[in-house]
Design goal:
heterodimer; A: alpha/beta; Rossmann fold; Arc Repressor Mutant, subunit A; 8 helices; B: alpha+beta; Beta-Lactamase; Helix Hairpins; Heat Shock Protein 90; 3 domains; 5-stranded antiparallel sheet; 5-stranded mixed sheet; 9 helices
Chain lengths: 226, 477
């Protein structure tokens, strides 16, 4: 999978390259709108990460020109502006998704995966990690054959973690997808901590191996190895 | 190019003069007319009297002509300007006074002339002299004659012209004097404006404390000045708030920045294990998270200030909003063995943006949970506040808020206890966001608190217009 990163801020570009390469993507970085435009025309990419505030040519301009030329590659916009109008404008000009800076890297990865998967969005019903199983329809979860007694919120939390197993999930992603809270200013951190603790008590404590891990400063991950 | 005076003062004076000149002209016209009419009436009266007198003085000559014979010797020949003609009804001229110098007083008489009561009419001699003329039919002995008597009106017209000249002479003088007077008056009346303009020029963002000086606060200009001063006051308050806000914001930014910097610098001072580095980076990321949240809150507030947020309103029961908010934070209460109770009329429906109002209520409940002791009760009470309002109160059993802090709890970055709140990660923006959210819905929020007896935050919101308290939406779930 080839990803083009159009980003003028060298530090951010480098972090994006390293982070994506670690996930086995092939990354090409274009430091300006012109160069990005040229590269998209010249080479094949599976995904474009486009910064909106670029020197030379504005990201939105690049995007609309590309779309006018019939380019189908999914485009994920990165920007520091998150006013609704900007968001709408970006999507109108043909962006597939939108991420506001400063974004959490796990969320970027999740969106990149979602965009690359586009078209085949089968939502698995049976979810599994090690001896943890979950049925998303009957809303039952078991570990090691034992039924887990979860509240609705705990179930949603565990389901989200399980759907993104072995990937770090940021607090913002949880707030948005589990609590449906769009405003990041809402104080949900404490609420999340309590829920994670309770989930641990039910999912991990009775068993000898922990599945729920905290990645300090980043978020949470559900995985087998410690 | 249109002639248009630049300043109000000249414009006022000009208008004043135009009106004055118009009035004077009208006055002069009317006065002249009346003078003329009254003079002419006397004139006509004399003319008619003379007609009678002259008739008596006529005598028939043997040759068929007529002569004027006066019983008064000095009146034998009429005065200058006194013209007489005598005609036979057949149109033969019987007598013409010498003063006419052979000019005719009009054509020979028609069959109707003099039949009616004599009425003076205006006429003109061939040499241009204006006349008043009266005629009548008389008999001298047995002969029917038509007698015409006319006076020259020239003296009357001269009198009128002189009167007009006097008026015209006075006219420009009066207008000129009035103009000066009007201009001076306008200048005097408007002088406070010049003063205010001069003062206003010197007031800048750095000197917002200055005010315009007002001579008389009761008059129109004084009121204008007061309005300006009040506006300056509001501007000054806004600037002060902004300054304080900026200072507070940079202070808030400095704290996590300091943490990131010192944690990083200390970690780099000697070799550490990968696990330790991981820990350091994690700690730095936590601070970044705090910065992100702060930036997010500030942005939300600034956008709210700019009025950029559109509310997606829907009708919803206030009790249900309370439940939604409490469902988000109730785990926190559970951890502290606190009880959140919600009571009230589920039929009170408000029209609100659910996400925004929920955030506001979550902030209130979050505060209540933080500051209330373990095991206490938090009551969410929904009440009707008359026909148009509904109240939602969040009542806690916490330590209360000291009276001196109460006016500031909704201020940005305000914390009752700076040190204590920091550990909760709050930046003191929660309540200002709450207040904004409530006010954006046309409501308001008040605080009632006694030290040691808990706090009550009361949100009042307008009820939804159409009381669509349908059981599906308004009822308890």
């Amino acid at each position: 999978m080839r990803v083009l990163v159009v980003e003028d801020e060298a530090k951010v570009a480098r972090a994006l390259r390293e982070g994506l390469e670690r996930e086995k993507y092939e990354v090409v970085v274009a430091p300006s709108g012109e160069e990005g435009f040229f590269l998209v025309n010249a080479e094949e990419f599976d995904l474009v990460l486009l910064d909106l505030m670029l020197p030379g040519r504005d990201g939105l301009q690049v995007l609309s020109t590309l779309r006018k030329r019939g380019l189908q590659t999914p485009v994920l916009i990165l920007t520091a502006r998150d006013a609704i109008e900007d968001r709408v404008e970006g999507l109108d000009k043909g962006a597939d998704d939108y991420l506001v800076k400063p974004f959490a890297f796990p969320e970027l990865l999740a969106r990149v995966r979602a965009l690359l998967r586009r078209g085949r969005t089968e939502q698995a019903v049976q979810l599994r990690l090690a001896d943890l199983e979950m049925d998303a329809v009957t809303r039952k979860a078991r570990r090691g054959g034992h039924q887990l007694d979860l509240t609705a919120r705990e179930f949603e939390l565990l389901e989200y973690l399980l759907r993104h197993k072995e990937q770090v999930v940021s607090r913002e992603m949880l707030a948005r997808y589990v609590w449906k809270e769009t405003a990041r200013a809402t104080p949900l951190d404490n609420v999340m901590d309590v829920h994670i603790n309770r989930l641990r008590r039910k999912v991990d404590e009775p068993f000898d191996r922990n599945l729920i891990h905290t990645v300090r400063g980043v978020g949470f991950v559900l995985r087998e190895e410690e | 190019m249109r002639l248009r005076p630049r300043n109000v003062r000249s414009r006022l004076t000009l208008w004043y003069l135009l009106v004055l000149a118009g009035l004077l002209a009208l006055y002069a016209g009317v006065a002249s007319l009346f003078l003329f009419l009254s003079l002419r009436e006397d004139f006509d009266q004399n003319l008619l009297e003379d007609l009678e007198t002259v008739e008596e003085m006529l005598t028939k000559e043997p040759n068929g002509g007529v002569s004027l014979h006066s019983s008064h010797p000095d009146a034998a020949e009429p005065r200058i300007g006194h013209f007489i003609e005598v005609w036979s009804p057949q149109g033969a001229l019987l007598y013409r006074s010498a003063s006419l110098q052979d000019q005719a007083l009009g054509s020979p008489p028609g069959p109707d002339e003099g039949l009616h009561d004599p009425t003076p009419s205006s006429a003109r001699l061939p040499n241009g002299t204006r006349l008043r003329l009266a005629s009548g039919i008389y008999h001298i002995e047995d002969q029917r004659i038509v007698l015409r008597v006319a006076y020259s009106q020239e003296a009357l017209w001269r009198e009128l012209r002189e009167f007009g000249e006097v008026l015209l002479l006075g006219f420009p003088i009066a207008v000129l004097l009035a103009g000066f007077g009007g201009y001076a008056l306008a200048r005097r009346a408007l002088s406070p404006i010049d003063l205010m303009a001069t003062q206003a020029k010197t007031i800048s963002a750095e000197k917002l404390g200055d005010r315009l000086s007002i001579e008389n606060p009761e008059d129109e200009l004084g009121k204008l000045g007061s309005v300006f001063n009040a506006m300056l006051g509001r501007l000054q308050a806004a600037f002060d708030q902004l300054r304080r806000f900026t200072a507070d914001a940079s202070h808030e930014l400095r704290t996590p920045l300091t943490a990131i910097r010192s944690v990083g610098e200390v970690a780099l001072q000697d070799q550490r294990s990968p696990a330790e580095y991981r820990d350091v980076i994690g700690s730095m990321l936590e601070e970044v998270d705090r910065l992100t949240r702060l930036a997010e809150s500030l942005l939300a507030l600034s956008r709210a200030d700019a009025g950029h947020i559109q509310l997606l309103r829907e009708d919803i029961s206030l009790v249900r909003m309370g439940k939604e908010a409490s469902s988000v934070v109730e785990v926190l209460a559970e951890e502290k063995r606190q009880q959140i109770d919600i009571e009230g009329d589920a039929n009170l429906v408000v029209s609100v943006d659910r996400l925004i109002l929920r955030q506001a209520l979550v902030n209130l409940l979050d505060n209540a949970i933080k500051y209330s002791p373990a095991g206490s009760q938090i009551l969410v009470r929904v009440q009707s506040g008359g026909d148009k309002q509904a109240y939602l109160e969040v009542i806690d059993q916490g330590p209360g808020i000291p009276r001196e802090h109460q006016p500031h709890v909704f201020d940005r970055f305000f914390r009752v206890d700076k040190a204590r709140t920091r550990e909760w990660g709050g930046a003191g923006l929660g309540l200002s966001i709450t207040r904004w959210a409530v006010e954006a819905h046309g409501g308001d929020i008040t605080l009632k608190s006694e030290e040691g007896q808990g706090s009550t935050f009361r949100v009042s919101l307008p009820l939804a217009k159409v009381s669509s308290a349908s059981p599906s939406k308004g009822g308890l779930q």
